[in-house]
Amino acid sequence: MLFLLSFFLLPFLVVFKISVSEMDTVFFRDVLTWADGLVTIKINFANYFGLAQDGLYLGTYIRSLGYAALTALICLLIAYPFAYCIARSPADKRPALLMMVMLPFWTSFLLRIYAWKILLADSGVFNQLLLVLGVIAEPIKMMNTPFSLVLGMVYCYIPFMILPLYATLVKMDLSLLEAALDLGATPAQAFWRITVPLSKSGIIAGSMLVFIPCVGEFVIPELLGGPQTLMIGRVLWDEFFGNNDWPMAAAVAVVMVLLIIVPLALFNKHQAESNAQAAA
After folding, report:
1. Is residue 130 within 8 Å of 176, Cβ to Cβ?
2. 43: which DSSP letter?
3. What value does the mean pLDDT take over residues 248-254?
4. Which residue of 17, 128, 185, 245 has the fewest CB atoms within a 10 Å radius of its CB?
5. What angle is formed at CA 248 by the lines to CA 247 and CA 253, rounded to 5 degrees?
6. Do the Cβ atoms of 215 and 256 come closer than 8 Å?
7. Distance, CA of 247 to CA of 241 (rounded, Å)
8. 181 alpha-carbon distance from chain centroid
9. What integer pLDDT is reported at residue 25 of this predicted model?
10. What's the whole-model pTM score?
11. What is d(CA 73, CA 67) in angstroms, rounded to the nearest whole number?
12. Residue 72 clears pLDDT 90, i.e. is over it
């Protein structure tokens, strides 16, 4: 609790204080002032009203949530077979397979993103290969599109989906599947009615680990996305360092944190219910 108070709640309150302050040239005014024995409190909610009324901010929030949800869904569809195969592989081979999942983390994050810029460029590797094979007559626009943005986020965050799924699937009691097959269930029915429900906690944990950082992602949209893929991380950067409007930037950050807290609260509620059922 002391850690959360010091490194989350207090900084959040500081940002919230800035968001309800008024900008004075290059500085922002204090909310609480003392002069001539009189305490004056000035709280300015104009920035929050501006967020609600400006289509740019609303569109950016919706776009960020949409891209983050799409990334989490694609990561789940790709990661589940990977995690399932690793969990069902021989025990002596699992460490090597898990190490292969973690290998990208041994390379700089920026280097991996720049590598995708080279691969997806109009004169990049993919377009040149398709031209040589005669599949296309002219280069396909892949860079600075929603495709390149989602591809980059899926590539970078898919290990965060694989690992929670693996941790859940490797602990599953395989005798339940044998019992389902003995009772006449097909392998597909046993998978859908036994394996998937038992791995629900891993699905939720992996989805949260992917969704939450993707909402505020800045580097990948900046390097791989285009104007039509403007996300909230770029808006924050522009407000802080371009417009030098700290109160508006702080309001954008506060709303973003609140949007992220909602799925976190749902996840914690699910975890508490699962633990209570397990204890019962």
Report:
1. no
2. -
3. 90
4. 128
5. 95
6. yes
7. 12
8. 37
9. 66
10. 0.87
11. 10
12. yes
| Domains (range + CATH), the chain | 1-44 (no CATH), 54-279 (1.10.3720.10)
User: What is the model's pLDDT at position 272?
Assistant: 74
Checking if the pLDDT of 48 tops 80, the result is yes
Per-residue pLDDT at 86: 95
Tokens of 146: 């929603």
Strand partners, 35: 38
**CA distance linking residue 21 with residue 43, whole number of Å:** 6
Which residues lie below 8 Å from residue 225, measured CB to CB, with a gap of 6+? Answer: 144, 145, 146, 148, 149, 231
Query: Are 233 and 55 in contact, with CB atoms under 8 Å apart?
Result: no
Is-contact 156 169, C-beta < 8 A? no
Query: What pLDDT does residue 107 have?
Result: 85
Number of Cβ within 10 Å of residue 164's Cβ equals 22
CA 269, chain centre distance (Å): 20
> Distance (Å, rounded) from C-alpha 251 to C-alpha 257?
10
